[in-house]
Amino acid sequence: MKKRVAIAFLLLVLFTTITSEQKISLINFNLKKIEIENNFLLEEKEIKKLLIPIYNKNLILLNHKDIQKAIMENNFIESFTVQKKYPNTLRIKIFEKKPIAILINKKKKNYLSEKIDLIDFKNLDGYEDLPYVFGNKDEFEILHNNLKKISFPSNIIKDYTYYESQRWDLKTKNKKIIKLPSKNYTQSLQNYLDIKDKESFKKFNIFDYRIEDQLILK
How far is CA 145 from CA 47, 137, 193, in A? Predict the structure, then answer.
């Protein structure tokens, strides 16, 4: 607090002339304009609506926590940076979460980010073909991490379905179904990658790995 008061006093001295008629008061530093940049998924008006509580606050005394409390209410926002432009403008650079899938859980729809954070769902241009996840977030996060470990091409997947038996089915965009066991399924996924493009396997639509050390083709 003492530091902010000292800064306010210093700026007041710098921006105030010796004549009383030209004296600039602290009210001239109240926030009047907010500039938003680097937003692609969120509209500027959405972000500015979040920031209504900080309008007209003194720009000198406005701290990062005040801005963070307002702006992070939108879960599309990963992080942000702030630049104060005196006397009355705030420039905010937005870094958004990127949706990688659409989660359907208990009839509720959310996006999942690259870090498997939940994001409120809304129709987004360019994200109509995201894969669907029918299951819960925590189980998908485990699967997602295992897919990354073996460099499994997630762009070929149309949807993921999790069952009460604690196992997954993966459906590809070319209508292949990969039935995984409940445990140690990375070996099954690796096997699928090894054989999926071979001519002798192209006629099959179901790759069933549920029985240990077996592959049933249909």
Answer: 32, 12, 17
User: What is the reported pTM?
Assistant: 0.82
For 9-54, the pLDDT digits (tens) are: 555 555 544 344 444 555 678 999 999 999 999 999 999 999 999 9
171 to each of 12, 23, 38, 97, 162, how far by Cα in Å? Answer: 65, 70, 35, 25, 12
Domain ranges of the chain: 24-96, 99-217
Measured distance CA(177)–CA(171) in Å, rounded: 5
Alpha-carbon distances, residue 56 vs 3, 30, 34, 89, 189 (angstroms): 21, 5, 11, 10, 57
Decide: 7 and 21 in contact? Cβ < 8 Å.
Answer: no
φ, ψ of residue 94 in degrees (nearest 5): -100, 140
| Residue 128 structure tokens | 């109509």
Between CA 50 and CA 69 the distance in angstroms is 9
Fold type of domain 99-217: Rossmann fold (3.40.50)
Instruction: Tell me the CATH class for 24-96.
Output: alpha beta
Token digits of residue 215: 């592959």
Rounded (5°) CA angle 152-157-161: 105
Q: What angle do CA 10, 12, 16 make, to 5 degrees?
A: 125
Q: Which of 164, 199, 169, 192 is nearest to 181 (CA)?
A: 169
Contact 35, 92 (CB under 8 A): yes
Which of 84, 28, 74 is closest to 51 using CA atoms? 74
